[in-house]
Structures are given as C-alpha cells and as structure tokens.
Amino acid sequence: MKRLLTYLLVLFLPIILVACVSSNNSTSTEGTNDSQDNESTDTEQEDTQSADEPVELTYWYWADNSEYSNLMQDIIAEFNETNDKGITVIGEEYPWDGGGYSETLFTAAMGGGGPDVAAFKLTSTPLFTANNLLAKLDDYIDSWEDKDDIEENLYDIMKSASGTDNLYVMPWNTQVLYMYYRPSIFEEAGVEVPTTYEELLTAIEQTTMDTDGDGNTDIYGFGMRGATGGQEPWGSFIHGRGGDFEDMTSKEAIQGMQDFIDIYENGYAPPSATTDGFNEIIANFKSGKTAMTVHHTGSSAEMVETFGDDVSAFAFPEGVGQWTSMGDTNNVIFESTEHKEAAFEWVSYLATGKGQEDWTIATGNVPVSTRVQEMDHFQNDEFMKASIEGVPFAGILPIKDTTTEWISTIWPNTTASALLGEITAEDAMQQLHESLHEE
Amino acid sequence: MRRKNINIWPYLLVLPALLIVTFVVFIPVIEAIFMSFQSYDLRRPDKIAYLGFRNFADMFSDPIFWLAFKNTIIWVVFGVGLQFLFGFILALLLNQSFRGRGIIRAVSLIPWATPGVLIGLMWKWIYDGNYGVLNDLLIKLGLLDQGITFLSQTSTAFGSVIVTIIWQGIPFFAIMILAGLQVISREMYEAADIDGASKLQKLIHITIPSLKNVIIITILLRIIWVSNSVDIIHNMTGGGPSYSTQTLSVYIFNKATVLDLGYSSSMALFLMFMLAMVAVPYLKNAFKER
Predict the structure, then answer these.
(1) Which CATH architecture has domain A55-176+327-393?
(2) Which residues lie below 8 Å from residue A423, measured CB to CB, with a gap of 6+?
C-alpha cells in the first residue's frame, strides 16, 4: 500500500507542477489576452469605421518562375509602403503544382491554418463556397469607386462559378489561350497562318517535317498536351467541329476528339504527348521540336527571348464553332479573416491599382482593368493582340464538383487511352461526359 | 492470503508512447474506418451520409480499382522480388574482402538514402523521350534510331517505374542481408570445407538458412512499404498514361486529393486487410519453432 501511494505521488507530482506552471502562465499572459481582446475590438472597429490600426494580412500566391516570385514580393513591398491604412501584407508563396496549390489551400483553410487572402482559380469556387470558407464581396464591390473599371461580364463569370448570385472572387488577371507558331517553319513548309479550323489541321500536317531526310520526324506540327491542363487546348478542337462541353457525346464533339486522336496517331505530335505537360510542351516548342503549341501570354517573354522575331501568335481559328480557354487568376478573401476591409484594400490594389499594372505588364497576362488594357504596352503587343482577339469566344469548363477530378485524373487518362488506340473517340467522349456531368 | 503485488512502473513508462500512438495512428485509422462507410466527399459536404457497404460495392464494380489491384500485385511481386534478388547478390559481393570496400558499401547506400520524390523526378528525366539520358545513350550506342517515350506508352511505363523502385530498394536488402552475413559463424564454413562442400552447397545449406529470419522480416517490410508507396509513381507518371501505372495506393491518393475521402478510405481499408492477410500468416509460419 505504501509503495502504491509512493507511485501515485510520483505520477501526480508532475501533473501538479504542470498545473502550477500553466496557472502562472495564464496569469502572466492575461495582459496579452487583454491586448488580443483589444485587437479584436479594434478589428471590429476597423471593419465598421476603417480605423487605421496596424493590420497584418497573410497572402498566399503561386508564381510560375523566380522572376514572378520576386515581382510579387516587390508589389507587396510597395503596397506595404504606400498604403496609408497601416496594412502590412505578408506574402507566402506556394507552388502551383499542377493544381495541387488549391488542395493545399483548401486543406489549410479547413484546418484553420489558411491565409487571410489568397490567389485563386475559379474552378475551386464550389468546393470553397460549399464549405463556407470565402467572404462575400458584393457589398465591398458595390461601394467601390473602381467597380466600373472591370467589365461586368467578368463579375458574371465569377458569380456563375460559385453557382449563386453572390460574388466571392475578385478578378485579377486572365490568360486567354492562343496558338504560338514559328514563322520560319511555316515558311519552310509553305504554310500560311490558318484562318479556319480546317486550315489549322492542314497546317499541323504540313509543318510536320523530316528536315534531315533520315526518315525520322524532326519537327512536329503540334505540341500536344496530354497531361493535366491539356483539356484546355483540346476543348478548342471539340468546339472547332461544333461540339461543346454540355453534350460531349454529340457527333460533332466526337469528331473533334477524332481530329485530336488523328494528330497523334499520324505522328503530327511528339510521341510523348500522352504525358506531356506544361514544361514539356514549352521545352519542345523552344527547342524547335514543334511548330505550334497552345499557351497564353505568360510564356511570351521567354518565347521572344528564345526566338526573337521568329515566334508569333494567332487566335484559335473558327470552324463550325470557336472556343478558347480563358484561364483566370483571381483573389479571394477568407471568411475567417478578421480584417476583411483591409483585405479588400489589398485585392483591389491588385485588380485596378498599381499592382494590376505591375503584375500584368511583367507577366504578360491580360489585365482585368479596362484602364490598364488601354495602355500602349498592351495595345502594341502581338501576343496580347491574339489574346484580345480570343476574348469574344473565350470560355471556361463547366465548374462542377466533379471538375477538379475530371481535370486532374479523368481527362488525362481517358484521353491517353484514346490517343494510344485503347478506346475509340466515341467511348472516350462517353466516359468524359459521364464523369463530368455525374450527379 | 497474500495480495497480488501489481507493478505499475511498466504501464507508466509505456503510457506516453501509447498516448502518442493512439492520437497519431489509432484515432485516424478508426476515423478512416468510419469514413469508409460514409459518402464522405468534401466536394459535396451537404450530402455526407451513412452508406453501409455501398463504397465497397462501388469499389468492387469499379474497373479502375481492379486495374489498380492487378498493378499492385505486379508492382509488389516484381518490385520486391527483384530487389531481394539483386540485394542478395550485392550483399554477397560486399561481404567479400577487396580494396575500397568501405567506400563501395557507402556509395551503394545512396539510392536508399535519396528521398522518393527526388528519385521520381530524377528517373522521370532519365526516361524522358525527348531529352532523357537513357535514350541518348541507347542512340549513341547505335541500339536505337529514335528515342523511346518510356513513360508515355502503356507498354513501357509500368516496367519503367518498377525498375525505379527496384533501384531504390536494392541497398536496403543488401545492407540487411550483409548485417546477417556478418554474424554467421566462420566455423560453419570451415567445417563445410573439411566435408568438401561446394560454394553452391554452402550457400544453400549454410548461408540462406542462417539468413532466414533477416530475409523474412526484410521481405515483409518491403512488401508493406512498396504496396503503400506513392511518391515515386506520383512523381513519375501520376498513375498514367491510361491508368497503366496506377497502383492501389496511388488510386487511394488520387481519390483522396480530390477529397473523395469516403471512397479512398474504403480502398485504404481493403489494402490494409490485404496486407494483413499476407503479413500475419507469413510471420506466424516463418517464426514458428520447428
């Protein structure tokens, strides 16, 4: 019995000690808690009265390369220095990782460790709004002096993405896909810039060349993207035949898929196309292995750096239908942030302020601010011109709760099966339709 | 009557570790078991409900699941089997006396010490159809006219990733078997020499039986690790093209990352039972006293 009591004493002694220490800590941190309480009171005041208390915001973003990474840090530094509301933005960069960024952001937000503001893709909207993670921006935008500087249709696209009448996403910049091509290869092949979908298919065939006569293809007509992200240029082929995403089993959509398969099977695209992603299509184009590839203005600077004048662009040409993918990069404010008004200051700086100019000029993305669009820099750029030509028929994939999985695994694997001849175009389109539109 | 004296010290000492394991392992596993019986899909949070065995029924009628299951068997049999074979050969070689043995032993450990993500990226570039060093070598040796797109064709992709996991696992087998080799008594070999045993006879009758327990535990550990391995396949192919490299663990990972946690949990539960079915009888028989 005596021994048992000794053991119990040994067991409880540390607990008692820990309790004493905790008690001391709670006493000593009462002051801190008080200050936190004061801060939250101040926050409430800030939200209602715009008091200029110092506010710290965490901002998550991704950057396609180290140059853009530095650029964003510079924009943040300038905002922190110039805003007169005591707002300090702390930029935290995460890799895009083929869409993995959105998953990381979601997991962090669900776990309570997310940022106050984040760069965001529209496709993730239903997931985030279904879990009540995003702040509604309607009231902020209605009373915002720059509201009309952004096209109304952009707000509409943002609203449609959430499936509600509310606005949760603040436009920042867009990327309209177009076709890059090499004028010297076109000249060598005797091909003009295609003005119709049929001419494009012919140009892809004719620019596929064996330049050294060894019997092997040296230049492929089209840098096809079969990995995640390839659904965007693929969509242009589907629409080129008159198909659409609402009914992918239509004969027009199947014919578009057949065109896509034929390009691969006939050897007009590199054999690695089934798994080629962004890095591969850009590397193939820059090394002269492909004559054409689809991307947006985000790559134009490095293309010009590589080829000088020997690279140009055209909007995806019209067939029975015409479509190109409008990529988007936006910003969201999280419902959990205590500083929504300060957060809106920051996202509006990126949407129409100096941040919009700096980011879009350096990255070559299409500005959402009409004031910035009208600047000479954008009016005189041939890649921007191809983007702007694509705007009237640009669109996005239907945003459903199935879209993320459809993009990340279903589209690449189903399309690879079709390209490799394991399933027909019809079967592939049936599978793609069912998996995107399943309830 | 003398009262039984209970010594609580062992329980006290085990308690912290037990608490950590409970929170880090047991509770998440139990949660995953509950999720596997629900439509726990965070893309549709309003539709989360108890489903009974529906996830399992869906799983057994899912052709991609069966393809992943078949791939897992191939992945484990060839991956672990060839790791063992080459690891054994390497261990026998490293057990010989030769100049620079210490350096060779250290260098041979590099694949095992390299993170799986890095191995995936490295081999992805080695295999690259346009710029990969493997194609470059084969073309320069005159064995190929044009590069092979190893990871882009269903016929070559899975074999290519299996070679990668074999490369990674050989040192682990080698080092474990080497440790086992070094505790085998020299006297047994000397006695065999006196009896006129050949090298092969010594291998079959002395070396392999003496290494039995090491081999069993190493193979078992590798079966579990390789079955659960995601990093290499995920980084090299993501499970494609056309699901040809998708094992069960990669399928579970892909489903979990699109937040279909119910379905991925049910597959994870299935994989856990499959591994338990292999591990438990294997260990039971292997260590049974004869």
Answers:
(1) 3-Layer(aba) Sandwich (3.40)
(2) A414, A417, A431
- Is the reported ipTM for this assembly greater than 0.90? no
Query: Tokens 């027009």 sit at which residue?
Result: A252
Instruction: For residue B241, give both structure tokens.
Output: 């093209």
Q: Which residues of chain B have pLDDT under 70?
A: 1-4, 287-290
CA distance A13 to A17: 6
Best of A133, A261, A413 to disrupt the B interface by mutation (most B CBs within 10 Å)?
A413
What pLDDT is recorded for position A389? 83
Question: What CATH number should be reported for the domain whose range is B70-249?
Answer: 1.10.3720.10
In this structure, are residues B181 and B211 in contact, taking their beta carbons and an 8 Å threshold? yes
pLDDT the model gives residue A433: 96
On the question of a common fold for A55-176+327-393 and A178-326+397-437, the answer reads yes
Predicted local distance difference test score (pLDDT) of residue B78: 97
Tell if the CB–CB gap between B129 and A413 is shorter than 8 Å. no
Q: Are B225 and B83 in contact (CB under 8 A)?
A: no
**Beta strand pairing call for A117-120 and A312-314:** unpaired
**Nearest residue of B to residue A8 by CA position?**
B8
Is the CB of residue B7 less than 8 Å away from at least one CB of chain A? no
Q: CA A25: distance to chain centroid?
A: 45
CATH code that applies to domain A178-326+397-437:
3.40.190.10
Which of residues 218 through 257 in chain B touch A, CB cutoff 8 A?
237-243, 254, 257
Q: What values do phi and psi take at A427, rounded to 5?
A: -60, -40
List the domain boundaries for chain A. Answer: 55-176+327-393, 178-326+397-437
Nearest CA in chain A to B129: A272
DSSP A99: G
Question: pTM score > 0.80 for this model?
Answer: no
- Find the DSSP H helices in chain B: 9-21, 27-35, 54-60, 63-94, 101-108, 110-113, 116-127, 133-140, 154-181, 186-194, 199-202, 208-210, 212-228, 231-236, 248-257, 261-286
* Smallest Cα distance from B257 to chain A, Å: 7
Q: How confident is the model at residue A192, as a pLDDT? A: 95
Asked if the C-beta of B260 comes within 8 angstroms of chain A's C-beta atoms, the answer is yes
Weakly modelled stretches of chain A, pLDDT under 70: 1-52
CB spacing of A130 vs B46 below 8 angstroms: yes
